[in-house]
Design brief:
two-stranded antiparallel ribbon, single chain, 27% helix, alpha/beta, globular, 28% strand, 5-stranded mixed sheet
Length: 161
């Protein structure tokens, strides 16, 4: 596209959440999906899956206009599937009875949104404070590699947008 071409895009953001910490506002954008859409970083890179990025940019610009004294940063952009989760019991040993808590954990795992989360600890802890290794509610897993904590399924703020 030439630099002088304008494209108007219409859409509706399903949900935004914000979290403020020490003068920084983290924005999370959720898009509800009823189908089998999964976040694909390669598709985002090549411009064939831009919806979440466009929504994030629009919400952040709006927040920056209103909140001039705060640093507005991307927290996460996620697809959330609203289908009723189906639990696959093929991995459960026949005859094993699952507790209600185990069933609820399996359902929660199926409901976990898919997408990118800011690797800044303030950002992902604003979305889930109570996990040690792997979050049940956001796509983040913490791993120690050579005495450094590494966040899996994340992007740095510069790479997120």
């Amino acid at each position: 596209m030439a630099n002088d071409v304008t494209v108007d895009i219409k859409g509706r953001v399903d949900r935004t959440d914000t979290y403020t910490d020490e003068g920084r506002l983290f924005v999370k954008v959720l898009d509800y999906k009823s189908g089998n859409t999964v976040f694909d970083l390669v598709k985002l890179y090549y411009g064939t899956q831009l919806q979440l990025a466009v929504y994030m940019d629009a919400v952040m610009e709006q927040k920056k206009e209103v909140l001039k004294q705060v640093s507005v940063e991307p927290g996460g952009m996620l697809y959330y599937h609203i289908d009723d989760p189906v639990i696959d019991l093929k991995d459960v040993t026949p005859g094993t009875e699952l507790s209600e808590e185990e069933i609820n954990q399996m359902i929660l795992k199926k409901l976990k949104p898919d997408g990118l989360i800011n690797s800044d600890e303030k950002a992902y802890r604003g979305m889930d404070r109570d996990f040690e290794k792997s979050s049940d509610v956001i796509p983040v897993t913490l791993k120690r590699i050579r005495h450094r904590l590494q966040v899996q399924r994340w992007q740095t703020p510069k790479n997120l947008m």
